[in-house]
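Appendix C reproduces, verbatim, an entry submitted by the partner laboratory led by Prof. M.T., so that reviewers can inspect both the input and the predicted structure.
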Amino acid sequence: MNFRKLFGWATRAQTSEQEINTRLWRNEPFFNLGGSQPISHHTVYSCINVIAEGCAMLPFILYRKQDGGRVPAIDHPLYDLLQYSPNPHMTAFQYMQLLFFEKLHYGDHFALKVFDEAGRLVELYPIEYARVLPFWYLEQETGLRRRAYRVTGFTGMQAVFLEDEIFHIQFKPILSGDNYSLRGASVWNQYQDKTIDAANQAEDFVSKGFENGINMSGHISIDTPLDAEKSALIRKQMQEAYGGSDKNGVVGVFGHGAKFYPHSQTSKDGQILETRKYDRSVIAGILRVSAHLINDLEKATFSNVEHLDLAHYKHCLLPHLIDLEQTGRKDLLAPDERKQLELGHDDSLLLRGDQKSFAEVLEKAVQNAQMTPNEAREKRGLPPMPGGEKLFINSASIPIEMAGTNKGQADDA
């Protein structure tokens, strides 16, 4: 099947018709993700955006192992793909931001792998989450269960892809039932019924309160008995005269001995602010996002904000970065390439905002022969200098067995 007919922007990798026809896959229609989504809550969106942008801004680099160290593998096509642009339509930052956004929100991210004539991966095309249906099939040669993906195109055409044709990164693999480790489960699958629903209900309560003008909510007591028709008429007149936020502060006038008994409560009585702060804290805690990064500065100070940033990197961003590196090694590198190549993130970018710390790190690295002056200049975006390719060490540092040697010689003289 020609993948160009399916999506209109890529050609699928070659798979024999016999392989496709021998697979066991479910004939389920394309499904649409409707209804209320956790992403509609502002704190959920803020937290996911903080993680997605924080991970996407760190360069994802392909390295070649060399003499016990590693150097960027700039001659490999995967280097440019991950560093600059995975396909003609996206930058690397845009793609990585989408990858982490879908991973956190849906639990899965899918992308089509496109290979050149030499069989090397040259492009990655993200596929809309709702258009991909993973399934298990039995491999006839081994009798083992393998994963495949049924993709529905924009025109309704469908195609099946093998596991080595799709780049699939998961959040929390499902560990039970027929879908055991087949696809990822978003964290919201576990908290949707309680945490997210409760937070959305609190937001709806506030919204409706402002919509109704907060005040004039209650009942009217009239001495004269009223039938249903007259009660409905009075209720309609009251709503038209005093309902809505634009009527807030209007003075009510009642006659015929009518008395108004309010049912409304203040924001303080309803603990609206406390509830919203609690929901924000719980949601941020689920994703391990530091509170100060979503504009919650109650416990942030000038003395601890730097440590909060470090904690955010170690406990929130780093697990996702390691997951991407390991998944990339498994799915983006050929088995024979894994011995010579490895994937990693350049986390030194996190220090660029703190120029003093960044300069001190480079200075110590040069003085302790961990980095040449030209390598340090490259980190600062400066050109190399003659003689800067050598390693240097601080002259004050000497081996411990030589300590006191000069002093002894001076005494003998």
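The first strand starts at residue 60 and ends at 66. Additional entries are available on request from the coordinating office.
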